[in-house]
From TrEMBL:
It comes from Dehalobacterium formicoaceticum. NCBIfam families: division_SteA (NF040608). Keywords: ATP-binding, Kinase, Membrane, Nucleotide-binding, Transferase, Transmembrane, Transmembrane helix. Residues 318-368 form the SteA-like C-terminal domain. The chain crosses the membrane at residues 332-350. The keyword Metal-binding does not apply. InterPro entries: Put_SteA-like (IPR047795), SteA-like_C (IPR022215), TPK_catalytic (IPR007371), TPK_catalytic_sf (IPR036759). Residues 191-227 form the Thiamin pyrophosphokinase catalytic domain. This is Cytokinetic ring protein SteA. Gene3D superfamilies: Thiamin pyrophosphokinase, catalytic domain. The gene is steA. It comes from the Bacteria.
């Protein structure tokens, strides 16, 4: 394999600048499925990972998604390789070695399905250990944040009225694009308030929708979407620090700040709930252990408490696209055609003109057949 490389410490940011057929150089232990699919969408020729794409700590499908798309992965090349190369460098990969100008720059392990299966099996064996740590951390932090249920957030003044309306919250999670596509009829009919959590706002715009509100730390969203005219709300730490404001200021935009515990999607749900929304529909939300381990989080206390608080009006659309993958069967088409012809036949028997026309047509067909 030959090609130009492009490096990135954060995969979700690197995919924005990757050109088709480039070789992505990443530092990403346990590549999550969402990041893998983003690399596939960027049409990379291959992936060089300085870390272990699948470590065996827990089971996940990231590397498998890359191989399914025909993208080879050279694994565990080492961080020193990342630091010694520059974007645009022409390299050649032979087996597990990387060459440039005839000089070997590094080597790694070419991932195969056998290696992935072995690591996945190891991850299943280790999963109970990871689950135990995850539950312990969740309970520990939940006990510290339990007032999240009882108290309200200090909200800035918002430009829209939530009371009596539905709210759709879109997060960059597994199958979020597929799920968003399935519920388009709901969006078009009900016209809910549209909230994009960071990159979820890009997804809304890709489907032709204008986000009403964008909330997050603003690190995984395009400049064009930030400038689209939506109200901007930077998610801040409990002490008021809001690193996302630096990017907002650099773009010459204005935003409000929302200090809130937990994730940005938690903050979005709490905001909508507190402002009196009638129903919250969540797309792409993170709601299980694997989701959180893939994001590098060791617990889900805030998400657990948030869902306890807003659960009475929360509808999670995660995975809804899987309900609609049934292919259209031939018999359905035949039945549909028959149903459409029934009114025609009834009318032909009632109307003398149509009946005479059909008889004439029948006689002509008989004459043609005899000829």
């Amino acid at each position: 394999m030959k090609g130009k490389i492009r490096r990135g410490l954060r995969t979700k940011e690197l995919v924005k600048s990757l050109e088709p057929h480039e070789i992505a150089v990443i530092v990403h232990e346990d590549i999550d499925e969402l990041a893998a699919r983003a690399l596939v969408a960027a049409k990379v020729q291959g992936v060089i990972n300085t870390a272990a794409s699948i470590s065996g700590k827990y089971p996940h499908r990231g590397p498998e998604a890359l191989l399914d798309a025909g993208i080879p992965v050279l694994d565990q090349v080492g961080r020193d390789f990342f630091d010694r190369v520059d974007d645009g460098l022409e390299i050649e990969i032979k087996g597990g070695e990387i060459f440039a100008g005839g000089r070997c720059l590094g080597h790694g392990q070419l991932l195969s399905r056998r290696v992935i299966q072995e690591k996945a099996h190891l991850g299943e064996e280790h999963f109970n250990l990871q689950l135990g740590k995850f539950i312990h951390n969740t309970i520990e932090y939940a006990s510290k944040e339990q007032d999240l249920i009882g108290r309200d957030l200090v909200l800035p003044e918002m430009n829209m009225e939530f009371r009596g309306r539905h709210t759709l919250i879109v997060v960059r999670g597994k199958n979020y694009l597929e799920d968003l596509n399935v519920i388009r009829p709901y969006i078009n009919e009900v016209k809910p308030i549209l909230i994009g959590v960071d990159g979820g706002a890009d997804a809304l715009r890709s489907f032709g929708y204008q986000p009403d509100l964008i909330i997050g730390d603003m690190d995984s969203i395009s400049d064009a979407t930030l400038k689209c005219g939506a109200e901007l709300l930077v998610h801040a730490y409990g002490d008021g620090r809001a690193p996302g404001m630096d990017r907002i200021a650099a773009l010459g935009l204005k935003a409000k700040v929302l200090p809130a515990p937990g994730t940005s999607e938690d903050a979005a749900m709490l905001l909508a709930y507190q402002l009196g929304t009638e129903l919250i529909v969540a797309v792409g939300s993170h709601s299980n252990v694997i989701d959180f381990l893939e994001k590098g989080r060791q617990g889900m206390a805030s998400t657990f408490l948030t869902r306890l608080k807003v659960g009475s009006i929360l509808v999670d659309a995660k995975g809804v696209s899987k309900l609609y993958r049934q292919k259209l069967k031939i018999r359905y088409i035949v039945l549909l055609v028959i149903a459409a012809l029934i009114p025609f036949f009834i009318y032909s028997f009632i109307s003398p003109q149509v009946s005479q026309f059909l008889r004439l047509l029948y006689m002509k067909l008989r004459i043609l057949i005899k000829m």
